[in-house]
Amino acid sequence: MGKTxxxxxxxxxIVSNEIQPQFCGKIGKVKKVYMTFSEKEEGGQLHKMALYRxxxxxxxxxxxxxDSDLEAV
Length: 73
Prior knowledge:
The relative contact order is 0.33. The radius of gyration is 13 Å and the shape is elongated. A 5-stranded antiparallel beta sheet has the order 4-3-2-1-5, with no helix packed on it. By secondary structure, it is mainly beta. It has one domain (11-72). It has no helices and 5 strands.
């Protein structure tokens, strides 16, 4: 797996969440990290992107977050 901005167990601040906006500004923990890969059209190089499952207290948020949705605490 490639290097990600956050790893499992990291505390993060949720700065964007379209599905559950009531969690914006809350502090949570990274519960799971998924790496996605897709081919770029030019040159066939792989484009990597990390997606994160976040929990706030006992609640695991719906959907996944990307790097721009989170800030390090």
